[in-house]
Amino acid sequence: MTADRQNLDWMLRDLMKGVPETRHIVVLSADGFRLAQYATDDDTADRLAAACSALQSLSSAVGGEFAAGGAMRMVVIEYAAGFFYLMAAGPGAFLATLADAEVDPGLMGERMRDLVGRLGEHLAASARSGTPTLR
Questions:
Q1: The overall pTM is greater than 0.90
Q2: Phi, psi of 10, deg, nearest 5
Q3: How much is the pLDDT for 131?
Q4: Are 74 and 52 in contact, with CB atoms under 8 Å apart?
Q5: CATH number for position 34
Q6: What is the pLDDT of residue 62?
């Protein structure tokens, strides 16, 4: 494991510990490629990354059509068992979390914004495809 991957794992773990009721955390590229995960197995993380890719694409299209080109920053979905959050984490990268219904939604949004600021140091756009990679 590289030093940067260890730093990324530490940051994701910090989000998990700092926001009670968080269940899954995934960092993904815009095309749905899982870059990192915490507290979830590979299969779940891959399925979540694929779903997030579709959601961010739809959100960006809605923003472009109805919000004068506004880029997607965050999507929050409340469902019966909890909350889903998807936040832009830099060019072509996103942070996704799933949390139980008892989560503090404001705290989750605040901690995700803080984490996104730190993630930029550890994600870089690939010259060939524009897909973020871990440094």
A1: no
A2: -65, -45
A3: 57
A4: no
A5: 3.30.450.30
A6: 86
